[in-house]
Amino acid sequence: MSHHQSQKSKVLARVSAAARFEMDNQTDVTEFIFLGFSNHPNLKGLFFLIFLVIYLTTLLGNILIITATRVSSSLQTPMYYFLSNLSFLDICYTSTTIPVMLVNFFREIKTISYEGCLSQIFFLVTCAGTEGVLLAAMAYDRYVAICHPLRYPVLMSMKVCVCLVTKSWLCGLVNSLTHTVLAATLTLCGPNQISHFLCDIPLLLKLSCSDTSLNEAVLHAASATIGLSPCLFTAVSYILILSAILRIPSAQGRRKAFSTCASHLTVVVVFFGMANFNYDRPNVGYNLDIDILVSVLFCIITPMLNPIIYSLRNKEVKGAMKKLAGELRFSRKIND
User: Fold this and answer.
1) Rounded-to-integer distance, Cα 61 and Cα 56, Å
2) CA angle at 306 for the pair 82 and 55, rounded to the nearest 5°
């Protein structure tokens, strides 16, 4: 028997034994077994290296963005205040999933405790919900800057910016707390396999042997309020922004106006596009590899792309990053 078959039989034996125990004794599940990447056991070393590089790139890129917006005087504006919060969110987002996944690559049976699963759901849903609302707040900032430039200092004062960021976090926290509390009320009596590399609400609902109608109703309501509403608000904001840009008489003026929102528009399209594909794609058959790939794109690749997009598309951010890198090299020379 090959190592792969032996490993798979051990996992199945443990799962079936746990399932029999749970069904016979009607007790709750105390841990879950992740099946994500189980189709490719021989590639776990390569997967570990790829996701480690992605994680370190995400951390480095977003930390540099946060540092640049703090130390550069040219980036002390509402737009970059929102950007630094977005970068902090992306760090939290990836730190919720990737470290657990990296550790599991070295474990024969990839488990997570019941409490750990609920904690992962709480932080994941908080970050995803907050990011959607924050991107809508950033769209409003761009709308005011282009459509009402003379009133911009008043409409986007620091007090207003702090209020918008705080409300974004509150929306994410309230939404996440509601889902997590409802998920904690579910009766889970086996099996305890999660066909993924992370815990998510729809995955737990599939494992429940109790009534999930309330959870599903709240999930649909949240999708409409904290998911669809920010997306529609952002879309309307950009329709108004583009119509205002098209009314600018000079081509140079139009390019300059569009360049101020190009990075944010790119991030918005990537985030909401990936979110829609992850949660609302057509359910035609089931393929574990495709499911994993889609979630990797949304939960892991998107947070890595955000600082790259802003660095490549925004001259002010590129200038601040170069200045920061120069200062770091200079301080190193002095210390040496």
Assistant:
1) 8
2) 115
DSSP secondary structure string, 227-281? IIHHHHHHHHHHHHHHHHHHT-SSHHHHHHHHHHHHHHHHHHHHHHHHHHHHHHS
The tokens for 267 are 């991030």
Domain ranges of the chain: 3-335
pLDDT digits (tens, 9 = 90+) for 137-153: 999 999 999 999 899 99
Token pair of 243 as six digits: 């119509």
Query: pLDDT band at 23, cuts 50/70/90?
Result: very low
Residue 18 CB contacts under 8 Å (≥ 6 apart), including other chains: 29, 190, 191, 192
Q: Give 3-335's CATH code, choosing from 1.20.1070.10, 2.60.40.3140, 2.40.110.10, 1.25.40.10.
A: 1.20.1070.10
With vertex at residue 90, the alpha carbon angle to CA 85 and CA 92, rounded to the nearest 5 degrees, is 95
Beta bridge partners of 32: 112
- Predicted pLDDT of residue 22: 41
